[in-house]
Amino acid sequence: MKPNLQETPRLGAVQCISPAGLHTMRYTEWGDPANERVLICVHGLSRTGRDFDRLARALSEAFRVVCPDVAGRGRSDFLRDPRLYAAPQYVSDMVTLIARLGVPRVAWVGTSMGGLIGMGLAGLADSPVARLVLNDVGPHLDPLALERIGAYVGAPKRFASVEEAVEYTKSIAPGFGMRDDDEWREITASVLKRDGDGWIFHYDPAISVPFKTMTAESLGGGERVLWALYDAIRCPTLLLRGANSDLLTADTAAQMAARGPKPTVHVIPGVGHAPMFFDPAQIALVRDFLLAC
């Protein structure tokens, strides 16, 4: 009996290189492995590729959906030099992944950090990104929101139970907008791993090193680079914004709508940073955009 390709994910891996040496990036893959229509879904700062399980299942009849764990997260290797936990290394790793997949063009869905990686890749000359979904992120990131995120990313946390971890996730990420306790448990369990008789988050605490060492000057320089990359994007783009988001402000979304790829902008009510594609209506927004070609 053949496995149901829409329900059964496959696990893959690709070897990447950094200035500090080699590392392995692992990914979850859904749908027909022979399908040349490939969708890459990339998660946020302290998350994993399993955030996209529901979206991947919903789109796996139309796409081969690949959801990597960015280096330092989930099943992927930690980087030897934590200073490399930044967009240039992540973009390089994604170029290697696309080469492994053996396709010339991909669609891209990126949440938060995953959107920044997609922006960096889509803004390059001869980019392989054919359609781009930016989920609650833009070239300008609100400093107060960055301060909020920096307060908990990388902090040592150990939980006696999954339920304890769920309550903590609710406290730091209310913007996810989960609709019930089962959804909160699912979105929390995807980023936990066993640690003896307890649980810890499934990422290298050192991912916070570049994040916590940002200065106003470096943040401003990074924003100028991101706007230049954004303005260079030529592929059709969809910008999603949580109505209550503190990271992607309404003003920044309006600026993005008027320049660069001039994306279609959709504001999702009842959530903040960031929509997690559990709601069928959110999934439909992405599906309709990606298939409108």
List keywords for this structure.
single chain, 293 residues, alpha/beta, Rossmann fold, 10 helices
Task: Please give a structural write-up.
The chain is of the alpha/beta class. It has one domain: Rossmann fold (3-Layer(aba) Sandwich), CATH 3.40.50. It has 10 helices and 10 strands. The mean pLDDT is 95.
Quick take:
By secondary structure, the protein is α/β, with parallel strands linked by helices. Helix content is 35%, strand content 21%. The chain has a single domain (10-142, 216-290), classed as Rossmann fold.
Return the CATH topology: Rossmann fold
CATH architecture: 3-Layer(aba) Sandwich
Instruction: Kindly report the name of the CATH homologous superfamily.
Output: Alpha/Beta hydrolase fold, catalytic domain
**Rg estimate, integer Å:** 18 Å
Tell the overall outline. Answer: globular
Listing every helix as H and every strand as E from the N terminus to the C terminus, the arrangement reads EEEHEHEHEHHHEEHHEHEH
Major sheet description = 8 strands, mixed
Helix content: 25-40%
Mean pLDDT: 95
Cα distance spanning the termini: 34 Å
Main sheet strand line-up: 1-2-4-3-5-6-9-10
Low-confidence stretches: none
Provide the CATH top-level class: Alpha Beta
> How many domains, in number, for the residues?
1
Strand content: 15-25%
Structural class: alpha/beta
The number of helical segments is: 10
